[in-house]
């Protein structure tokens, strides 16, 4: 069979929010490092099962087989404790073998204790009209019974992938979607005055108020967004003038999370990113903390991608039943933009990825820090302050109002190298500078008085 853009093989997946679903093209990637929709689909399913379903629903859905397909592995594990996949095309090929791991399903003891309730749940769900499509799976997937109260969907989906059985894969996806729809759209009560039952997947989000959005859910949204908007255009991001201040590079999600912790960003904060690239840092911070964000990027290629990524990120948050805070991404010159000047005056944290900025640009940016409010923090890859000690040489320098702290970042935190490095936190401290200057002036006056008496 031949394929074209109109009849590419696809599988659809329901997302947690109402009327939210996505189609995944079932094509083989040309390179193992390219975007693999089958893997992406499995990771999304596993994230929903782990964080959007109750233990009873998880038991009915089936245990998750392979930890290498779940978000709390590799890069995600580094985010959860203190590179996004690339882009288009897809795979029906067998995923790479992973080391044996313990499945994330309930233990055998807890499974046994919940068998009766799971079986009851299965019976009630199968009686729903909205799940009538599940009956078409009887030739492939045994329906839940008292002895086996689980559909075993993840394991059976993995088997279909391993055996390259496309029809079985699509049949199981039909069953997965039917089950998710049963939880998203429960039947209305017979009593017209009784409140309609809620979408229980979306309701699960309300239970995260104490701990915030789980790291794995946040990373899934970041990865899904990046794969669909940045990855396909990555080649355009490398078109820059060598040894210029416009060389492109990204701070990866683990580094962004570390910066968030180091600066204390929270829901009432404003983050300003000077040279925001495709907007990764601002978008992640907005979802991770609820802070407002503003980014400005002078280069047209990343700025254009940033606009698309912001739209996709908003859409993804809605699909997962979440809300993102206010974010503005502007294409413009950070030194000339009136909006940048306005945002800097209100900023709580300012990020400047100035790893390759030339000295004259760093000096021009430093002049903008005079507008920062007391206590604001500037995060940079190169220091704006050479010494926090006042002397005749630097007492009148703009940077004297900044107290600088040097920190180390780990390997795998930036896109331009595998090793670790250094970054800097500069805190605006005008009161401290005023006291230090007064002490310096008093010391200088005392020294002059001593010399005159001699």
TrEMBL record:
<keyword id="KW-0539">Nucleus</keyword>
<dbReference type="GO" id="GO:0000077">
    <property type="term" value="P:DNA damage checkpoint signaling"/>
</dbReference>
<keyword id="KW-0156">Chromatin regulator</keyword>
<dbReference type="InterPro" id="IPR029063">
    <property type="entry name" value="SAM-dependent_MTases_sf"/>
</dbReference>
<keyword id="KW-0489">Methyltransferase</keyword>
<dbReference type="GO" id="GO:0006281">
    <property type="term" value="P:DNA repair"/>
</dbReference>
<feature type="region of interest" description="Disordered">
    <location>
        <begin position="78"/>
        <end position="116"/>
    </location>
</feature>
<dbReference type="Pfam" id="PF08123">
    <property type="entry name" value="DOT1"/>
</dbReference>
<comment type="similarity">
    <text>Belongs to the class I-like SAM-binding methyltransferase superfamily. DOT1 family.</text>
</comment>
<feature type="compositionally biased region" description="Low complexity">
    <location>
        <begin position="87"/>
        <end position="116"/>
    </location>
</feature>
<keyword id="KW-0808">Transferase</keyword>
<dbReference type="GO" id="GO:0005634">
    <property type="term" value="C:nucleus"/>
</dbReference>
<keyword id="KW-0949">S-adenosyl-L-methionine</keyword>
<dbReference type="GO" id="GO:0032259">
    <property type="term" value="P:methylation"/>
</dbReference>
<dbReference type="InterPro" id="IPR025789">
    <property type="entry name" value="DOT1_dom"/>
</dbReference>
<protein>
    <recommendedName>
        <fullName>Histone-lysine N-methyltransferase, H3 lysine-79 specific</fullName>
        <ecNumber>2.1.1.360</ecNumber>
    </recommendedName>
</protein>
<comment type="function">
    <text>Histone methyltransferase that specifically trimethylates histone H3 to form H3K79me3. This methylation is required for telomere silencing and for the pachytene checkpoint during the meiotic cell cycle by allowing the recruitment of RAD9 to double strand breaks. Nucleosomes are preferred as substrate compared to free histone.</text>
</comment>
<dbReference type="InterPro" id="IPR030445">
    <property type="entry name" value="H3-K79_meTrfase"/>
</dbReference>
<feature type="domain" description="DOT1">
    <location>
        <begin position="99"/>
        <end position="441"/>
    </location>
</feature>
<dbReference type="GO" id="GO:0140956">
    <property type="term" value="F:histone H3K79 trimethyltransferase activity"/>
</dbReference>
